[in-house]
Structure to design on (801 residues):
């Protein structure tokens, strides 16, 4: 499988694989071909294929996962106290691991509500609050109100609110609910994006705006939903609008003034993409000049997507910024021949200049809307006895990838949910071995594609525990039919070009919390759920992992065995990311309830489920959501 | 308090002034009431498209009508235009909703009668509905309105399966 030299061999092998896969209909996890994956023992494969509905025990039946105390790079939390949460993913590397351990496997069953506060907004509460000192900061979906809560007062008391009044016209161009994925604290300011493509910095003590910058243009269909990250004197923000032909970029703003210093685009010339003499892509498929133009037909790169609405990471050791890009604009692949670089690409950049150091395009010429804006978790762990600087990326594609983050070499990649558009990744070339019958085209319906466009996971972020060495992934099991259709570009309106219908994947479950070993690239255990998991995950030093379901169950499981330890019902489905913090030495867990987001919007009254193609196809995946939950944003805080 | 004779003199003077005021006001009111389209200064009303109730007393102002009302021969074209202008991108493949609200259900923010739908498409709305009236001819917008009114009826073209 790895000796794929010569075009003829490649074609023959791909065709053979295609015949094998075409002959099997999609089934449970056992249907995935393991050909081409290193380090998979027969025993582990058998364990993965075992048809148990709830994998609550160690799949290998033996010793619990090991401990990797140095896995999170030093300096990753940038001096935050253990009881604080000052960045979206708690630290620069997006571990979402809290060093607090008072709430643990022995006592988490006693967790109870400490306080709850309605946010006053009915849209999806993605993102997470921040805790700086003894103040919590909450950002709502549009209209993006920021509220500071004094955690020393009984029940928490709001101190002030900052109401930015973003342009309401942005509401109609946000593809997937009018969400906000959170703020970042730096230099005494709370900094976050507004839906109308502005970025604001608010004084954390007084609630007065320090600066406010218009970065993008809603008339082009551009919105901002992602959480920023601050490194040194730079505020990094990404943009949204891949469904409206928006050209993606990451922007750097001056932390003191808010002035835009540079934008590194996802398409266009090497100059626009900031690819220069320092750039060394690991794989030949990603090497060449001006690929951001030449891998497109004519001027199509100008509408080329590659938006950057997910999570940004920073490595304090190698001083590299990491993020990855979204779909290549129009969903009809026949309208944009070529590899469509640099959509669906992982970038490593110098945070000062923006210059790219390396890049890896996950999917060339995407035909499924597999935005790879996922969290890139940076950990240092031993591979074959030697500590390597790794990057773990659980993908929309159904594969979870482990890279060497210094070079961009792919060390391991395996599927973590039923996947059939590709069967494996060739680690030598970096290319997925695709099933050509699952490629979508204009004017023809391609059926039974797994995962669906929402992916084996979407933006909801995973967590890592250095105490187990595992990555906890909130996964989906949803498949789709997809037909490319002709699309017209009318600026400020959708540039979509596909008719998509989704439905549950095989196996009788639609979501799973997967405990994933990033070195072996395999699942250790998991918890299957009725609905796809659209919440983020929290891992703590108490060896507890927290996550929430779309019908409003907030759950705690054992980080080593996946056994469910506690759950409680909250007012609305959970699409936000839990955090842990402490005040006066007491540990608390906070999470937003408030259904919404792309798939969660099916619960809204103004979405009709008699058409499974509604909302870009998600209505077919969760037609029962309206019966299972209703809207209403509420902040919940739990404690012992 | 004044003497009876003083009150009589004052009453006569006040009475003339009062009568003049009454006559003048009555004339003005008569003029105003009898002129049905009179706004301040006798100008024409701003619009024949309206969603809220007409203020009185006269409420006979004609409303814009769909020239294709009940004309099923335009439904296929209305459906085609619905896709062509990216309406399906925001409102869903078969108008079930997405970025914009469902047009299949009976809940309408700005009115679900044909004239109101026409107004919403033509003028745009504040949460991002574009003002298509600045680009499209009325004829095409009425055809799209006709298609929208056919949703969830037996005549809906290309109904979802």
């Amino acid at each position: 499988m790895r000796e794929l030299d010569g075009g003829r061999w490649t074609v023959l092998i791909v065709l053979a694989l295609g015949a094998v896969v075409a002959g099997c209909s999609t089934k449970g996890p056992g249907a995935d071909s393991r050909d081409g994956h290193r380090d998979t023992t027969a025993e582990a494969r058998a364990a993965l294929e075992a048809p148990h509905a709830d994998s609550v025990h160690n799949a290998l039946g033996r010793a619990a996962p090991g401990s990797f105390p140095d896995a999170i790079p030093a300096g990753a939390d940038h001096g935050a106290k253990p009881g604080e949460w000052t960045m979206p993913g708690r630290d620069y590397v997006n571990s979402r691991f809290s060093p607090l351990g008072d709430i643990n496997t022995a006592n988490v069953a006693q967790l109870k509500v400490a306080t709850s506060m309605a946010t006053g907004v009915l849209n999806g509460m993605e993102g997470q609050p921040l805790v700086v000192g003894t103040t919590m900061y909450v950002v709502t979906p549009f209209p993006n109100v920021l509220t500071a809560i004094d955690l020393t007062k009984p029940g928490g008391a709001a101190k002030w609110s900052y109401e930015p009044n973003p342009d309401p016209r942005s509401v109609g161009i946000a593809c997937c609910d009018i969400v906000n994925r959170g703020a970042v604290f730096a230099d005494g300011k709370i900094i976050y994006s507004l839906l109308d493509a502005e970025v604001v910095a608010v004084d954390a003590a007084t609630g007065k705006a320090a600066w406010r910058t218009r970065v993008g243009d809603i008339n082009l269909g551009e919105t901002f939903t992602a959480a920023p990250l601050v490194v040194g004197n730079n505020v990094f923000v990404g943009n949204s609008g891949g469904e409206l032909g928006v050209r993606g970029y990451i922007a750097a703003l001056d932390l003191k003034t808010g002035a835009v210093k540079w934008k590194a685009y996802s398409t266009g010339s090497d100059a626009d993409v900031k690819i220069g003499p320092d750039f060394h892509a690991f794989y030949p498929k990603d090497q060449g000049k001006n690929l951001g133009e030449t891998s497109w037909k004519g001027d199509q790169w100008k509408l080329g997507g590659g938006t950057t609405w997910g999570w940004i990471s920073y490595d304090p050791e190698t001083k590299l910024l990491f993020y990855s890009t979204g779909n290549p604009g129009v969903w009809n692949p026949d309208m944009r021949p070529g590899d469509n670089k640099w959509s669906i690409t992982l970038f490593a950049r110098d945070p000062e200049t923006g210059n790219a150091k390396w890049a890896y395009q996950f999917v060339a010429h995407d035909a499924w809307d597999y935005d790879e804006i996922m969290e890139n978790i940076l950990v240092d762990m031993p591979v074959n006895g030697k500590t390597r600087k790794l990057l773990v990326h659980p993908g929309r594609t159904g594969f979870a990838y482990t890279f060497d983050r210094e070079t961009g070499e792919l060390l391991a990649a395996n599927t973590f949910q039923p996947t059939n558009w590709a069967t494996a990744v060739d680690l030598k070339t970096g290319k997925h071995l695709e099933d050509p019958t699952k490629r979508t085209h204009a004017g023809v319906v391609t059926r039974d594609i797994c995962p669906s466009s929402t992916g084996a996971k979407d933006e909801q972020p995973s967590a890592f525990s250095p105490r187990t060495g595992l990555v906890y992934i909130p996964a989906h099991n949803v498949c789709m039919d997809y037909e490319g259709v002709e699309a017209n570009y009318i600026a400020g309106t959708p540039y979509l070009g596909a008719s998509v219908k989704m439905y549950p994947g095989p196996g009788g479950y639609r979501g799973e919390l997967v405990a994933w070993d990033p070195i072996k690239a395999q699942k250790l255990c998991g918890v299957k759920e009725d609905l796809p998991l659209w919440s983020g995950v929290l891992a703590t030093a108490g060896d507890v992992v927290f996550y929430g379901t779309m019908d409003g169950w907030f759950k705690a499981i054992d980080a080593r065995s996946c056994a469910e330890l506690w759950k409680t019902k909250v007012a609305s489905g959970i699409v936000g990311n839990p955090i842990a913090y402490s005040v006066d030495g007491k540990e608390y867990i906070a999470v937003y309830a408030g259904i919404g987001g792309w798939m969660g919007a099916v619960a809204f009254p103004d979405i009709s489920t008699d058409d499974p193609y509604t909302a870009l196809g998600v209505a077919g995946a969760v037609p029962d959501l309206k019966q299972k939950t209703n809207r209403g944003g509420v902040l919940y805080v739990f404690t012992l | 308090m004044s003497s009876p004779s003083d009150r009589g003199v004052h009453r006569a003077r006040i009475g003339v002034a009062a009568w003049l005021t009454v006559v003048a006001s009555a004339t003005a009111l008569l003029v105003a009431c009898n002129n049905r389209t009179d706004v301040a200064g006798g100008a024409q009303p701003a619009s024949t498209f309206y969603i809220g109730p007409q203020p009185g007393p006269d409420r006979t102002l004609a409303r814009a009508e769909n020239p294709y009302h009940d004309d099923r021969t335009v439904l296929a074209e209305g459906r085609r235009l619905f896709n062509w202008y990216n309406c399906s991108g925001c409102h869903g493949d078969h108008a079930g909703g997405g970025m914009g609200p469902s047009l299949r259900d009976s809940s309408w923010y700005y009115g679900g009668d044909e004239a109101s739908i026409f107004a919403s498409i033509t003028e745009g709305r504040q949460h991002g509905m574009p003002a298509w009236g600045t680009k499209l001819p009325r004829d095409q917008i009425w055809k799209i309105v006709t298609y929208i009114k056919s949703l969830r009826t037996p005549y809906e073209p290309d109904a979802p399966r």
Q: What stands out?
A: The radius of gyration of chain B is 27 Å. The first helix of chain B runs from residue 4 to 34. Residues 99 and 135 of chain B are 21 Å apart (CA to CA).
